[in-house]
Every structure is written in structure tokens, then in C-alpha cells.
Amino acid sequence: MALKQKSGETAGEAKKRRLVGFAKTDEGVEANKCIKIFLVSSKDEVGAKDGFCIDPMDLNQFFGEDGKIYGYKDLMINIWLSSVSFYAYADISYASAVDGGKGITDLKLALQDIFGEALLEKIDFLQTFSTESHCIRSTISAGTVLRCYSFNENAESSDNLSDGSFIEVVRMELCSLPVGLLYSRLVPLTFLLIDGSSPIDVTDSKWDIYFAVKKIQSQTGDYDLRLLGFATVYRFYHHPESTRLRLSQILVLPPYQGKGHGRRLLETVNSVAIAENVYDLTVEEPSEYLQYLRSCFDTLRLLDFEPIKPAINSVASSLRTDSVSKKSCKSLAGPPTHAIEIVRQKLKINKIQFLRCWDILIYLNLDSKDRKIMENFKASISTRLQSDIFDKDTKSKGKHLIEVPNDYDHDMTFVVYCSQSGEESDCLDGRLDGAQVDQEQQLNQLVDKQLEDIVEIAEKVSSLRSS
Ligand SMILES: CC(=O)SCCNC(=O)CCNC(=O)[C@H](O)C(C)(C)COP(=O)(O)OP(=O)(O)OC[C@H]1O[C@@H](n2cnc3c(N)ncnc32)[C@H](O)[C@@H]1OP(=O)(O)O
């Protein structure tokens, strides 16, 4: 006999209710785990799962607060992105779609948030391989070719044009209609591959875009263009009658990364800054790798820049002396003002970037195996960091350095804040819940991290110079 519960239902009924209740708990699936994005260059590659798969930053960010997709059983989303036209098509498959308590995610809407109007139905997408096959050439051929270099697929080649493929760097105004339309189809790539990227206003005439394109010669003697990467650059007004350039986004398509195209794009923007004698060139929130690339590139230029050599030699020779007092460390910690100014004027490197490269330039002039010299070098960096963060005046106003945990595992984040009263305790201490740790220890960690970066770039620069 079935046992009845208090409410009058049997134990069997209660069990069934529990099971149904359990089945209804939809745990969802992380977008990162069920979406794959393939870069394809022909119709035949669409549908093949062994093509070039893009590794996006984080797809979860496009799907609600927890990054999950709800309501589907065995969901698989394969997205085919054409490297010819930059249109896309999403192949969505699942066993069933049931509201398990958290609704059914509107996949079309979410994918449109990423791909916008570039997302097409399959039939239209397949047609783009013929109808849009020349879209890069027809859009970009009106641009100004600023640079041309030959390129060997398997090994990075020099800039002589004798062999390999031809690569051109072409500049265009983003506000021209065909360029704006092409850029709008490239925006999804910036969302997927650049951390924290946001679209730019293509109607603003101060935006330029630099395309790196590969020229492909056809058997008929005609040619076509394949897009390898691009960079967007904004032209700011600088008082009283100058402009500043800011590199906002730079992206090399994943199959072509690490082959020197990003560096060539950066070099080209830099030559424009010099040729047009703008005030300086800055980079908007560079990623760690872009900053590394940029520091290698700028340090190499600075090593050949005669006007700052006496200043580098003078600091390096002081650091070589047996003992460097705290007081003298301060004067050794940074470049002299005239060096900062001439570097900005001639190379268009701004002060913050020059300070980063300065440490590398000094390090390259020292014997890294000499413990005493390295101690002096470290002390000079520490002195500068210390005065950057806690200069005399602000120290007495209650400045605090606090380590704050972040979502990334590679670095630490530090927050510097001032208590209004200048007293030790402040409501922020409470908010950060015991995050305040010993300042000196944190400063040392900061110095060690800085030293690590300096050594890494110095070694890369030395190997590039000797190759
Ligand atoms: C502001 C922003 O947009 S931040 C976001 C930046 N973009 C992204 O993160 C998107 C994804 N990533 C990318 O698109 C690319 O990787 C980029 C744009 C960051 C870099 O472009 P890539 O083509 O991959 O880099 P590229 O091959 O040109 O340069 C890298 C190498 O050149 C080296 N290099 C730097 N200067 C020079 C020089 N003058 N001569 C020779 N080599 C140099 C660098 O040291 C680096 O070598 P390594 O990695 O072997 O140590």
C-alpha cells in the first residue's frame, strides 16, 4: 500500500514530485563551452569542424550575468566567419529546448549582440563567397598605400620586395561609407579578440583605419586582396595648433598573428606621426602583449637615437659606482627633461612610454651579472616608484597602497587612496575588508615585477639587434 504524506499524497507521488523538481533545475551551459567560431575562406570549409578555430577572449560575457545559456539540451553552436567578407553564419543545434525554470535563452538575439548585421542565414552566407569575393579589394583599393613589404609565409622576411607575398599597409578614413560598412563587419572580431573593446563612431571624420592586406596574384594576371589585420587611430586636437594620434584598436587575424604584421602596422602609424609632425602618439589601454611589442619596438628606436645617449651613459656610469645614496638614486631614477622633450618631438614617444623604455635602456648599459650594480639599479627604480606613489606631500595626507584581488591570475592590482582626514583608519579600509597589507612588501613586489618586465624586453631587444 502506498504511504500517504501529511498532505494526502503517497510517498510514490512525493518521490515523483521530487524527481520532476530536480529535472526542472536547469544548470545552464557556459557559452565558452558550447560555442565554436571557425574562420573560413571558402564555401567548402563551411561545415568542416577541422578548420581554423578562433580562441576568443571570453564568450560568457555576452550571455547574461553568469555567462550561461539556459533551456537547451545538448546545445552546440558552430559559427562560420568568412575571412573574405567578414559575414558570419551560426549553425545552432540541440536535442530539445525546454524552460527548466530559468527561461530559454534567445540565442539569435545574443549572437546578434556580437555579430550585428554581419550575421546571415546560411543560404545568404554561402552566397557571399561569390557575391562579396572582391569586397576587400573594392573597398581598400581607394586607400593610400603607406607601406609595402614582402612576406614569406613560413619565415618573417625583410622589407625588400624580391620574393614571397606582397603585403600593403593602406590608410583610409573610417567615415567613408564603404569603409565604415567593412569596419562594422570587423567589429565582432574586436569584441571577440580585444579585451574590453567597444565600437567606435564611424561617422566621426577624425578616425582613420590602417589595413594590412596581402596582395594575391591570380593566374589571369589580376589580383585580389586578403585582409590580415587593421588598426584604428583617432586624431585629437592638441592646443594650440597641433594634433595627437591615439591608436585605439589593433588586431591581426589569428592565423596571421606572431608573423610581424602587428609590428608593421604599429611602425606605419608611427611613421605617419613623425611625417605629419603630430604632438605625440599614444595607445589606448594596450594589452600586455601589445605593450611588450611596443616597448621592444620603441626601445630599439631609442637605442639608435643619438641625442639621448649622453644622458643614458651618465646614469649608467653613476649606477656602476660602488654605492649609490638614497639621495642620488632620486636623480638617477628618470630621464632628464630635455631628453623627454626631444624624444617626444622627434620620435613621438610620449613621456609615460619613454619612462618605461628608459629603464630598459639603462639596464642594457649595465653589467647584469654584477650584484652591486643591479642593487643600485633596483634601488633607483624603487625610489622612483616610491615617489610616484607616495611623494612627501601626499604621504602626510594619509595615502595608502592596497593590494586588491582581481579576476586575472597573472598580475596584481594595486589601489592607492587617500583617507580624507589623513588618519590611518577610513571607511575604505572596512570596504576592502582587511585587504591592506604591508606597504613596503607591496612596493618590493611592484619593483620585482617591473624588473622582470625590463629584463624580458631587454633580452628580446638584444636578440633582435644581434640577429
Ligand atoms: C589598443 C589595443 O588594441 S589592445 C589589444 C591589442 N590587440 C589584441 O590583443 C588582439 C589580438 N592580438 C593581436 O591582434 C596581435 O597579436 C597584436 C596586434 C597584439 C600583435 O600583432 P602580431 O602580428 O601578433 O605581432 P608581431 O608578430 O608583429 O610582433 C610581435 C613580435 O615582434 C617583436 N618586435 C617588436 N619590435 C620589433 C622590431 N622592431 N623588429 C623585429 N621584431 C620586433 C616582438 O618582440 C614580438 O616578438 P615575440 O613575441 O617573438 O617576442
TrEMBL record:
Q: Keywords for this entry? A: Acyltransferase, Transferase
Which EC class is the enzyme in? transferase
Reaction equation(s) it catalyzes? L-lysyl-[protein] + acetyl-CoA = N(6)-acetyl-L-lysyl-[protein] + CoA + H(+)
**Which residues does the UniProt record annotate as the domain Histone acetyl transferase HAT1 N-terminal?**
29-195
Q: What is its EC number?
A: 2.3.1.48
**UniProt cross-references to SUPFAM superfamilies, sorted A to Z:** Acyl-CoA N-acyltransferases (Nat) (SSF55729)
Pfam families (UniProt xref): Acetyltransf_1, Hat1_N
The organism sits in which domain of life?
A: Eukaryota
Question: What are the recorded GO MF terms, alphabetically?
Answer: protein-lysine-acetyltransferase activity
Fetch the InterPro entries from UniProt. Acyl_CoA_acyltransferase, GNAT_dom, Hat1_N, Hat1_N_sf, Hist_AcTrfase_B-typ_cat-su
- The residues the entry assigns to the signal sequence are none
The UniProt record lists the keyword Cell membrane: no
Ranges where the N-acetyltransferase domain occurs: 223-284
Instruction: Give the family from UniProt.
Output: Belongs to the HAT1 family.
Put simply, this protein is called: histone acetyltransferase
Species in which this protein is naturally found:
Dendrobium thyrsiflorum
